[in-house]
Amino acid sequence: MDLPVMPPVKPMLAKPVAKIPPGMQYEAKWDGFRAIVFRDGDDIEIGSRTGKPLTRYFPELVEALRERLPERCVMDGEIVIARDGHLDFDALTERIHPAASRVATLAERTPASFVAFDLLALADASLLATPMAERRAHLEAALSKVTPPVHVAPATTDAEVARHWFEQFEGAGLDGVIAKPLDLLYRQDERVMFKVKHERTADCVVAGYRFHKSGPVVGSLLLGLYDDAGALQHVGVAAAFSMKRRAELVEELEPLRMESAAAHPWAAWADEAAHETARLPGAPSRWSGKKDLSWVPVRPERVCEVAYDHMEGGRRFRHTARFRTWRPDRAPESCTYAQLEEPVRYSLTDVLGPPR
């Protein structure tokens, strides 16, 4: 490749804020893999957020990008997979597989799309030092006739429209709004944009914890919710405690600590087959690699309130939850999926528009 912006590029990032800030450009926050796409003639490279290549995992997308992007360009966007008009992050993670045959099968079964929202280079010109509003105009012109599976992310400068998107688009699997200053230059790996995400609370059973990498203090709390059949399902973790609080949590949970997980609701956590029918901690995955997934079981008798942004597939917290407080007034059996707020369903077609 011989482009004015060459790989690897680390994408520009966003920092969280509580409210949608005024006077900016607004876009939906996509729940996929952030990707920088480089095209130089027939050569296509897709770089991840960390700069590592994603190209081999999305062969169907490589061909689509080759057919639809300008001859020489660099674009920032998101790789997503949609099922039944809704983003499916689990299907996306399945694509990161070492076997080429499996990748090819999934490329046919769950084809990916690319949603472009920034243009970093076009032909021989680098746009990194071009204000965001001008980059957006170049992007829209370059992809004015693009067809699926390549899309241009909807954008607006109307804060009221952005608030409507924030309320409506979650039902299609999007998880908030991104705000970009109109004069913002492209600053790699810096948090200079703003993101507004949904935040809700839930009461969860604390059924175990993992030690912190620094020593015998709590790294994360393992959270559970009861399903309709009365089974305790692992829904995620709460983390990000101060070191003092990590030590305190070990002491607070010590009376509930179990010698082994044999009598625990998640006793089968180390059995790979058991993960096919239940949500258990320590599920083997390509992401965990050789990471130590062991945990300390505690009797599932304490309830805590956590804050979360949204659920993945209605089954687990998409991101790490944030511990709020203990809830001694709540019985563990009352912590069910029924308490969770369900976003109103919304079609992804209504976000991206119908195919041209």
TrEMBL record:
It comes from the Bacteria. Its EC number is 6.5.1.1. One of its GO terms (molecular function) is ATP binding. It holds the Pfam family DNA_ligase_A_C. It catalyses: ATP + (deoxyribonucleotide)n-3'-hydroxyl + 5'-phospho-(deoxyribonucleotide)m = (deoxyribonucleotide)n+m + AMP + diphosphate. The keyword Ligase applies. Residues 11-197 form the ATP-dependent DNA ligase family profile domain. Keywords: Ligase. The keyword Ligase applies. Residues 216-330 form the DNA ligase ATP-dependent C-terminal domain. SUPFAM superfamilies: DNA ligase/mRNA capping enzyme, catalytic domain (SSF56091), Nucleic acid-binding proteins (SSF50249). It is an enzyme of class 6 (ligase). InterPro entries: Adenylation_LigC-like, ATP-dep_DNA_ligase, DNA_ligase_ATP-dep_C, DNA_ligase_ATP-dep_cent, DNA_ligase_ATP-dep_CS, NA-bd_OB-fold, OBF_LigC-like. GO terms for biological process: DNA recombination; DNA repair. Belongs to the ATP-dependent DNA ligase family. This is DNA ligase (ATP). It comes from Streptomyces alboniger. The lineage of its organism: Bacteria, Bacillati, Actinomycetota, Actinomycetes, Kitasatosporales.
